[in-house]
UniProtKB/TrEMBL annotation:
Keywords noted in UniProt: NADP, Oxidoreductase
InterPro entries per UniProt: CBR1-like (IPR045313), NAD(P)-bd_dom_sf (IPR036291), SDR_fam (IPR002347)
GO function terms (MF aspect): oxidoreductase activity, acting on the CH-OH group of donors, NAD or NADP as acceptor
Annotated organism of origin: Pyrodinium bahamense
Protein's recorded name: Uncharacterized protein
Record Pfam families: adh_short
Family membership: Belongs to the short-chain dehydrogenases/reductases (SDR) family.
């Protein structure tokens, strides 16, 4: 794969040895990677506008924190829970805006707020997601729609509605936090070819996800080649959507997906060996990607990886 940087110095702007980069530690991106100034302030009128969903804890919190520290960005912590979101935003030095990506009305209100206040968006990090724990008594069929409603349909709806604002942004970036659980190998060869086709359309992608939902409801998803993971399928579909957006937007935008790794977060019941700050580095790196950086890539451990 293409390596963006080592674990000890992950600045990929080619200035890792500079005084500016030296003041950053391994969990903080060098602001020069996105062409920013070390003296940039989020309060300046020239600040880029960045949205991080699910920013009140875990990967989202640390992604937002790293973006704030990078400078030159006004970071918006978009969270479902107002109390937790406001508390996190205060600690981060970010702006809190309420957002529940499983609710169409909440998405619409959020997009209208960004459009009215800023008129553009420069960075979107789609981090918000849910996963049912293994011990959850909810039947598999009962977990399917809630998982896809947040992890796929809600993320797609938010991104699609924000795309016009991103097109007005400066060096716009879309970063979808996915997972190795979304690997293509979980589904049959026929489905792999359909999801990974460079000719895949929105209608075809959405039809595939709806077929999974229908097959689960009918109890035939395994026979139809889907595997047996609602979370995994939601992330597989999200990666396919990321690649689709990258193809649609071309060089005008950078849209990439990433896997943070197995991290010590609520979602993993704090079993992951990797800190959430370390896991967030992949998303932060892609949010600060230079204009000549990749698009339509899946990044894992700071490298472009096979999906």
């Amino acid at each position: 794969g293409i390596c963006f940087g080592s674990s000890s110095s992950w600045c990929f702007c080619g200035r890792a040895g500079s005084p500016q980069a030296a003041r950053m530690n391994a969990s903080e991106p060098c602001c020069l990677c996105s062409g920013g100034s070390e003296d940039s302030s989020p309060e300046q009128a020239t600040a880029r506008i960045a949205v991080v969903t699910g920013a009140n804890k875990g990967i989202g919190y640390h992604t937002a924190e790293q973006l704030v520290k990078a400078g030159g960005l006004r970071v918006i912590a978009a969270c479902r829970d107002p109390d937790r979101g406001q508390q996190a935003a205060r600690h981060l030095g970010a702006e809190f805006v309420q957002l529940d990506i499983s609710d169409e009305g909440s998405i619409g209100a959020f997009v209208q707020y960004i459009a009215s206040k800023y008129g553009r968006l420069d960075v979107l990090v789609n981090n918000a997601a849910i996963a049912f724990k293994g011990a959850d008594p909810t039947p598999f069929q009962g977990q399917t729609l809630p998982t896809l409603r947040t992890n796929f349909w809600g993320t797609v709806a938010l991104t699609d509605q924000l795309l016009p604002l991103l097109r007005r942004g400066r060096s716009p970036r879309v970063v979808n936090v996915a997972s190795m659980a979304g690997r293509l190998g979980q589904v049959s060869g026929s489905l792999q070819r359909r999801f990974s086709s460079p000719a895949l359309t929105r209608d075809e992608l959405f039809a595939l996800v709806r077929k999974f939902q229908d097959d689960v409801a009918a109890g035939r998803h395994r026979q139809e080649g889907w595997g047996n993971s609602n979370y995994g399928l939601s992330k597989l579909a999200l990666i396919a959507y990321t690649l689709l957006v990258a193809r649609e937007e071309g060089n005008a935008m950078r849209a990439n997906a990433c896997c943070p790794g197995y991290c010590d977060t609520d979602m993993s019941s704090h079993r992951g060996p990797r800190s959430p700050a370390e896991g967030a580095r992949n998303a932060t790196m892609l949010a600060l990607l230079r204009d000549d950086g990749p698009t339509g890539a899946f990044v894992r451990d700071m490298q472009i990886s096979e999906w």
